[in-house]
Amino acid sequence: MTPHVTGATVKAADRAHVFHSWSAQALIDPLAVAGAEGSYFWDYDGNRFLDFSSQLVNTNIGHQHPKVVAAVQEQAARLCTLAPGFAVDVRSEAARLIAERTPGDLDKIFFTNGGAEAVENAVRMARLHTGRQKVLSTYRSYHGATAAAINLTGDPRRWPSDTASAGVVHFWGPFLYRSPFHAVTEAEECERALAHLADTLAFEGPQTVAAIILESVPGTAGIMTPPPGYLAGVRELCDRYGIVFILDEVMSGFGRTGKWFAVEHWDVTPDLITFAKGVNSGYVPLGGVAISGAIADTFATRPYPGGLTYSGHPLACAAAVATINAMEEEDVVGNAARIGSQVIGPGLADIAERHPCVGEVRGLGTFWALELVRDKETREPLVPYNASGAANAPMAEFAAACKASGLWPFVNMNRTHVVPPCTVTEAEAKEGLALLDEALTVADRHTAGG
Questions:
Q1: If we measure between CA atoms, which residue out of 155, 165, 110 comes closest to residue 133?
Q2: How far apart are the first and last CA of the chain?
Q3: Using a CB cutoff of 8 Å and minimum separation of 24, what contacts does 22-29 make?
Q4: How far is 53 from 411, CA to CA, in rounded Å?
Q5: 274 has which bridge partners?
Q6: How far are the Cα atoms of 148, 207, 306, 356, 384 from residue 124, in angstroms, in the given order?
Q7: DSSP strand E in 15-149: where?
Q8: CB neighbours of 274 closer than 8 A, spacing ≥ 6?
Q9: For 48-187, where are the E strands, in sequence order?
């Protein structure tokens, strides 16, 4: 007989044996989750939370989608695993479905277990394709926690592991609200950001640069949608100097912005796209690289020196096939676009008008951020950059208020992100916005007028 499971027993086992990511182990108190469905999850005490984080912005089709659960079960009964060197029907079908949705000729798919490994392999492909070593990435970025990916990352999680010898050069990407270029319009920000990148290339030696990697829309760093013309300008610089253009769509891909891939908003085709998360909503770990014809040709007769035991794992690929088909059948991408333009965007704009702590609202689809400030005029962040402990108290109080009301937020530095599943209904979105509206009164107390 299975012993009675309680939140206390689950948490006790967790505390005894699980080592958690990004955490001081003695200072955390993980919630014991009993179950989840759709846009909600709940604990063992019956407390239910509206998931405005999509976990780590990956459950794009929500929790426990029956078609995907069934597909994993059926695949497990038929063929659980097989080495990557074999041709497997679900692996081939997952690759075909992804390639159908990528821009241009990115028609070959290299499968990984997640986003960081996708970035690692994309960078390796770019270096081998060009024979160069340097890779440029922006300061406001996150590309993963493995060796090359963490060095490419721009946020402070890089600092403890930054070797300063990984062939990475960081530059400033566009972000008008906190413009490093003193721009006052989107057009100025675009022009000056591209000039800055061109100057960086000139002084680094463009002939030494293998790749430029950008998140199409930076995710954890703040959901800063690029100004019109920026991605096209980066594409032009890459073409001018024979540099591989990598777009990281690990978080922004598979419906999150109201398009299959976020880059579709700007009609640009990179040389490589990295993906993970929403490709199968994280039901079984899966990521990958979508590869252009030119780079694929580099390895037509030359072996590609990379691989993973679980590359294209059948259970993960079965989940991807079911996810993509369900998204197509249920118009999940269209739903994300509609909810974003008709509910979340207008709702957040209304919230911003009424709360002194909201400095800016930005986003697309089901991918939004609120920039929280102490003063709307000076734009001073509600908490300092990379704040912790007492300095981070205003954001901690805000997050606690969200959870107490039944809203699970995605909070990073001085921002809260509004990133529900792409399947979120209008009623659920409005419920979440109402709870967010209420919780922001806590943050208002820390503003200049509070």
A1: 165
A2: 56
A3: 22/157
A4: 9
A5: 248, 289
A6: 9, 17, 8, 46, 36
A7: 33-37, 40-43, 48-51, 108-112, 134-138
A8: 115, 118, 119, 122, 246, 247, 248, 249, 250, 287, 288, 289, 290
A9: 48-51, 108-112, 134-138, 168-171
What single letter denotes the amino acid at residue 266?
Answer: W
For residues 154 and 141, what is the distance between their CA atoms, to the nearest angstrom?
5
Type of residue at 351: I
- Strand arrangement, sheet containing 33-37: 33-37, 40-43, 48-51, 407-408
Spatial distance between the Cα atoms of 360 and 341, rounded to a whole number of angstroms: 16
In this structure, are strands 244-248 and 410-412 parallel, antiparallel, or unpaired? Answer: unpaired
Q: What is the pTM of this model?
A: 0.97
H/E stretch holding 370: strand 367-372
For 65, which DSSP code?
A: -
pLDDT string in tens for the chain (450-residue length): 456 899 999 999 999 999 999 999 999 999 999 999 999 999 999 999 999 999 999 999 999 999 999 999 999 999 999 999 999 999 999 999 999 999 999 999 999 999 999 999 999 999 999 999 999 999 999 999 999 999 999 999 999 999 888 899 999 999 999 999 999 999 999 999 999 999 999 999 999 999 999 999 999 999 999 999 999 999 999 999 999 999 999 999 999 999 999 999 999 999 999 999 999 999 999 999 999 999 999 999 999 999 999 999 999 999 999 999 999 999 999 999 999 999 999 999 999 999 999 999 999 999 999 999 999 999 999 999 999 999 999 999 999 999 999 999 999 999 999 999 999 999 999 999 999 999 999 999 999 877
- Side chain identity, residue 300: A
